[in-house]
Specification:
This protein is α/β, with parallel strands linked by helices. It folds into 2 domains: about 5-115 and about 310-325, Nucleotidyltransferase, domain 5; about 125-305, ATPase, nucleotide binding domain (Nucleotidyltransferase, domain 5), CATH 3.30.420. The protein has 12 helices and 10 strands. A 5-stranded mixed β-sheet has the order 3-2-1-4-5, with helices on both faces. It has a 5-stranded mixed β-sheet with strand order 8-7-6-9-10, with helices on both faces. It is globular, with a radius of gyration of 20 Å. It binds 5'-O-[(R)-(carboxyoxy)(hydroxy)phosphoryl]adenosine and zinc ion.
Length: about 350
């Protein structure tokens, strides 16, 4: 059975996985950098790149050990080369190219966003294409028409903050820890989603399959302390107010994501919706998507929580590209800013 070594260093997780040709995961390691970035309330690119540099080789070694194989047993090398943080991507790309050169094995480039959708295919253990794909992560909130595992067409996405970024910034405003998504979601459990009437930006615009979360973030900031008032912003909020703000904020983000995803599905005349990325771990989003898709008799696949946040298992999409003959050579480069990679 052929074996693939996939590397993932697009943001702040250093990950590797060995995946057999039939999709079996033989070994997988994710080294999170959350502890390094949490004091800053967000990912610091330079710190992320340096941490990848330190962690990638030990992560690869541990992955091979878990897979009970050696580098010489690997038949294919794959790396996520877009989109992401420039320095972070470079570490993975250079490592993958070096491994491909040293072993003489073929190299496949992975689009990280496509891989997030492919996590749904892995969990479903059956074909999920064609589908509409929603990727909601720290850096992206994008809708794609996914005709096949190797044919993604960008439909729309955020015009400012990504959903995960909005959660992270909301957490910082509320005095909650990083990463903000899980913290806001936990705080929201004790709050009322209707306590604050936050806007649902672009929701009424049925022409566009786009999102906008920065105004929502500003609405949260003004709900905490009116315009100006920096001192008041620093004051400790009562726990119930934090819970109500978190619940109302979360409800607004989720409403936008659910509505626009269903709009995209209708417009594409699709029957299946696949959802991946860190924010897809959000419980309210999962529940609301399930309810909405059940009502409209749509097939819904949401990546399981362990495959929502960054990992290298979703790099199994490289097998699809390999089979389609989409190989890369040693001129492969990191492409940080491609939001709409085809
Ligand atoms: O996909 P991911 O691991 O990394 C990127 O590619 O960006 O996503 C990380 C993002 C963070 O912004 C984090 O706050 C968010 O996913 N996140 C969540 C939850 N778990 C992680 N957001 C909302 N609810 C969650 N339960
Ligand atoms: Zn991601």
């Amino acid at each position: 059975m052929l074996k693939l070594l996939a590397l993932e260093t697009t943001c702040d997780e250093t990950a590797a996985a060995v995946i057999a040709e039939n999709g079996d995961v033989l070994g997988s390691v994710v080294a999170s950098q959350d502890a390094l970035h949490s004091i800053f309330g967000g990912v610091v690119p330079e710190i992320a790149a340096r941490a990848h540099l330190e962690q990638l080789l030990p992560v690869i070694e541990e992955t091979l050990r878990r897979a009970e194989c050696q580098l010489s047993d690997i038949d294919l090398i794959a790396v996520a080369n877009t989109p992401g943080l420039a320095g972070s991507l470079l570490v993975g790309v250079v490592a993958a190219k070096s491994l491909a050169l040293a072993t003489g094995k073929p190299l496949v480039a992975i689009n990280h966003l496509h891989a997030h959708i492919y996590a749904c295919r892995l969990a479903a253990q059956k074909d999920v294409f064609p589908c509409v794909g929603l990727i909601v992560s720290g850096g992206h909130s994008s809708l794609y028409r996914c005709s096949s595992p190797t044919d993604f067409h960008y439909l729309g996405g955020t015009i400012d903050d990504a959903a995960g970024e909005a959660f992270d910034k909301a957490a910082a405003l509320l005095g909650l820890p990083y990463p903000g998504g899980p913290a806001v979601s936990k705080a929201a459990e004790a709050g009322s989603p209707t306590a604050f009437d936050f806007p649902r930006p672009l929701l009424q615009d049925r022409e566009r399959l786009d999102f906008s979360f920065s105004g929502l973030k500003t609405a949260l900031r003004y709900a905490i302390a009116g315009p100006g008032n920096p001192e008041q912003l620093k004051a400790q909020l009562p726990p119930q107010t934090v819970a109500d703000l978190a619940a109302s904020f979360q409800a607004a983000v989720v409403d936008c994501l659910v509505e626009k995803s269903l709009l995209a599905v209708r417009r594409m005349k699709a029957k299946t919706l696949c959802v991946g990325g860190g924010v897809a771990a959000n419980r309210l989003l999962r529940t609301k998507l399930q309810q909405a898709c059940a009502k409209q008799q749509l097939e819904l696949h949401i990546a399981p929580p362990e495959l929502c946040t960054d990992n290298a298992v979703m790099g199994a999409i490289a097998w699809e590209k390999f089979r389609a003959g989409e190989l890369s050579d040693l001129s492969l480069d990191a492409i940080p800013g491609v939001m709409r990679g085809a």
